[in-house]
């Protein structure tokens, strides 16, 4: 699973994320001193497994309804999450639904909600204390606030997350999100709306089927992920001191770039133009299908010396048309076709 690694965060007001798995939707969060964080790092993989201990202490999927809000008159949703999990999913009742899922101690996770001028504002903020387990996956949901969202109501969704784990599942909403120390995953089988997310010290991802809306994911000291059947809109995935990963059957118009990090991509077909490049890092690009029509450009000694037979900078396959451009500067490059 990617990424499965502890995330190095300084303790403080926003708390500490000691472990994060974006695709699994799980994290361990809390407040801790540097000494406590050092204990976690020192015991990781030893006789004491902090992840297993945190999972064992959790009580998943026990649901407690909090309150609901009529959909009429609400056009925007603002969600603030701190030291907790939040899952946004289609409503079951046609109203906005708020419920605890897997929350054994509600006093540690106070929730506030209000509607004003057409905006529903919801906040869930975990309280100070020892580290605990958060999971937003539907199968093992723990310490999470579920927000049911009615269809065809919202024109705006804003996420404000810090040391939190957030899932936006099956809503196809325009999302604007800036996070710190958080993991945010958006899942849609058919996505048409723009998605713009940025993070510092965290992980961002989009997974699903056919994506036609624009996608812009950027990370500083973090990771971004695109895992879809096809992406027909404009895609920008960038990371500074972090990693970019993209998997798509078809990628039409994409820019994949990492500074002091890595780019790993697996693409079946290039639709219009795809650029993938790194500076001071590693580039791994797998074109899973041999191209019929393609123009290839490549720069960087590490790339050019490892190109497959018949590939070179400026080579044209078939009628040309779609463009694939790879750039490796100051790093290793692996390029594979078929």
Describe this structure in words.
The protein has 338 residues and is mainly beta. It has helices at 34-43, 50-57, 301-304; strands at 4-5, 16-21, 26-30, 63-69, 76-82, 85-90, 96-101, 111-116, 119-125, 132-135, 144-149, 156-162, 165-169, 175-180, 183-191, 195-200, 203-211, 215-220, 223-240, 243-259, 262-279, 282-287, 294-299, 316-317, 323-329, 333-337. The strands form 2 sheets. The chain has a 22-stranded mixed beta sheet that branches. It has a 4-stranded antiparallel beta sheet with strand order 1-2-3-10, with helices on one face. Strand 8 (111-116) and strand 9 (119-125) form a beta hairpin.
Task: Write the topology of this structure.
Layout: E1 4-5, E2 16-21, E3 26-30, H1 34-43, H2 50-57, E4 63-69, E5 76-82, E6 85-90, E7 96-101, E8 111-116, E9 119-125, E10 132-135, E11 144-149, E12 156-162, E13 165-169, E14 175-180, E15 183-191, E16 195-200, E17 203-211, E18 215-220, E19 223-240, E20 243-259, E21 262-279, E22 282-287, E23 294-299, H3 301-304, E24 316-317, E25 323-329, E26 333-337
Parallel strand pairs: 5-9, 5-12, 6-11, 6-13, 12-14, 13-15, 14-16, 15-17, 16-18, 17-19, 18-19, 19-20, 20-21, 21-22, 21-25, 22-26, 23-25
Antiparallel strand pairs: 1-2, 2-3, 3-10, 4-7, 7-11, 8-9, 23-24
